[in-house]
Amino acid sequence: MNNFLKEIWVYAEQHYGKIDKVVYELLNKSRKLANKLNMPLVTILLGHKIRKKAKQLIIRGADKVYVLDDVICNDFKDDVYANILLKLIKSKKPELLLFGSTLIGKSIAPRIAANIEAGIISNCVAFKLNYSSKTNFEKISFITTNKYEGKKEITTVTISKNKLKIVVVKPDTLIDRVLQNRTGNIIDIKLKDNEIVSKIKSLNIKIKQQTEMSSNIIVSGGRGLGNEKGFILIKQLAKAIGGTIGASKPPVDLKWISNNFLIGKHNIVSPKVYIACGISGQMKHMEGVNINNDTIIIAINKDPHCKIMEIATYAIVGDLYKIIPEIIKEIMFRRTNKINNVYKK
Amino acid sequence: MNIIVCIKQIINSIINQESNNKRYGLNPFDEYALEESLKVKDMLKAKIIVITMGTPDAEFILRYSISKGVDEAILLTDNAFKGSDTLATAYTLFKAIKLINNYNLILCGKQSPNGNTGFVGPELAEMLNIPHITCVKRIKSINNTVVIVDRLLDIGSEVLESKLPVLLTITKGDNISRLVSVKGRILARKASIKIWDMKFLNMESNRTGSLGSNTHISKKDENNKQKNKEIFTGNASSIAVKIVDKLLENKII
Ligand SMILES: Cc1cc2nc3c(=O)[nH]c(=O)nc-3n(C[C@H](O)[C@H](O)[C@H](O)COP(=O)(O)OP(=O)(O)OC[C@H]3O[C@@H](n4cnc5c(N)ncnc54)[C@H](O)[C@@H]3O)c2cc1C
Ligand SMILES: Cc1cc2nc3c(=O)[nH]c(=O)nc-3n(C[C@H](O)[C@H](O)[C@H](O)COP(=O)(O)OP(=O)(O)OC[C@H]3O[C@@H](n4cnc5c(N)ncnc54)[C@H](O)[C@@H]3O)c2cc1C
After folding, report:
1. pLDDT of B32-43, one tens digit each?
2. What homologous superfamily does CATH list for A207-344?
3. SS3 for A242?
4. Quick one: CATH architecture of A8-188?
5. CA-to-CA distance for A181 and A59, rounded, in angstroms?
6. Chain A partners of B13 at a C-beta cutoff of 8 Å?
7. Taking each helix axis from N to C terminus, what angle separates B236-249 and A320-337, rounded to the nearest 10 degrees?
8. Residues in A touching B113 (Cβ below 8 Å)
9. Model confidence, pTM
10. Is B209 in the pocket of ligand 2 (CB under 6 A)?
11. Pairing with A208, which of A217, A336, B15, B44 sits 20 to 30 Å away (CA)?
12. Residue B128 belongs to a domain with what CATH number?
């Protein structure tokens, strides 16, 4: 596949009409890239009753939105979504195509890559341009991260010339930035009757209660809380700092807190600040916390030698029941006295 | 029912301190995939074939699979396969599966810990022109035409029915690996492993290995550098003053 269209495409993942937060982060990242390369940023929105959401993509950076609003896209089906995207990609041949690293993104992106023999990259966290070649993609490389046996590896990956580039981007900051005075085109696409048929049928779907853990600040409690009352303290600290709460597995198993707050492999969070109270920081827990170079980890723990203290930015050694109330008090004190003007609500 | 399970060898760097040996093992997600295939075989008449692309010592995970109850094992090995990215890996597996040419169900692991892409399964399904479902926790039921599975979603979970043949990528469910029987151990020792190379697969060398890969790793760093870590100890109220300074400094509050 040669002669690519000089456009950057972003797949706008949505669930039953709600655009996934990772899309906004992708738009934020790729808008900057589009500016540098002087290329239009295009998003693809597939779903049912979603046309009115296209505006949300434009005000966050998209120049053009292709919308397919069709009942066949109501439930996510791996084959249906991949085939619709494939048709569109084959007809337009964009050079760079971005997906969020979600279950859906990771299911359809490789399928598309295999069909058109693209180069496909996973776990991308940043794009790197060689400035001597600002106007083309040839010198773009992709920074990817992977955790292997608890160690973080950073790998730079490139894609062969003359290949369409598919990049699956890991959510990290979940920044949602609305830009001023933006306009863009919304283009409807339509399917012919029976153009797409699925071999897969949904029999039953359970949607889990959305937890508000996509926040920038998470205060988490672990076994070190000792009992369920500990979470009262955790909630107070979260409230004082303006964050939400989370938990390691023991408090969930011991029924101190609902399963919705469990952080781990199946519920990965990407806060800017992670405050771990009475959590030792074992691998199974830390798999659930996306850490990048800017993530601040604050650990409050009695044991100065446990794992979390090794990785913490600020390691506080002591009894959480003594320290947390003091921190809350101090925050309140500074607020009321306005000793420092820097704080924002 | 013919089932193909794709498995991958990984290196556990749980290094034996005395010998400094690296230990080879099976990708844990492939262990779950293997167990799901064996559960199907418990329910109905089925033949299970495992295949892996890897170095000759990957024979170990094939014999291990046979000890658990797998019927046949194929090792795809050739110097030319070295450096394969996910598409080159999937294409090599595709060529082998084309040769087997008789399958109703293909199982892969959801991902593997070193590359950690989870791309190989969906890519392989596309090449075979069959549907796929990722992140399957369990096969609920299966007959000769359809399979019903529980799959995880980012927003919850779903029960799906797919026509066969289909490719499933398996994640952890209640698929705890079964124990190996004495009989299994003997079978594994005696089993003959098929070894297929590039020529046998009738492949062009520009479709596999680093030559056949569109992605290229140019630099690898291990990032273990400690950010300017600070430790706070002592009296709770003085710690609180210092940490709130940090919160303000970083514009957290
Ligand atoms: C298959 C499997 C899956 C798992 N999945 C997950 C998962 O998804 N998420 C997850 O979190 N875990 C998971 N786990 C469990 C995981 O391995 C750890 O056991 C768990 O994360 C430990 O939780 P913790 O840090 O709260 O408890 P502990 O490891 O017991 O640590 C408690 C810490 O609190 C400190 N402490 C005690 N009292 C105080 C005090 N008064 N003040 C300050 N510090 C104090 C102690 O020093 C200690 O460091 C899984 C385990 C298995 C086997
Ligand atoms: C740090 C790092 C980054 C990488 N980044 C990329 C990238 O961005 N894009 C890219 O295309 N490649 C990349 N690769 C290469 C990729 O890891 C290899 O191609 C690898 O052979 C297959 O990918 P995986 O380990 O990610 O497998 P996954 O797709 O995660 O594995 C899923 C399942 O596929 C099956 N499977 C995978 N490999 C085999 C095999 N050899 N034999 C039989 N079954 C198998 C198994 O069922 C396995 O459970 C990277 C490798 C490393 C080490």
Report:
1. 999 999 999 999
2. TPP-binding domain (3.40.50.1220)
3. coil
4. 3-Layer(aba) Sandwich (3.40)
5. 8
6. 149
7. 50
8. 148-149
9. 0.77
10. no
11. A217
12. 3.40.50.620
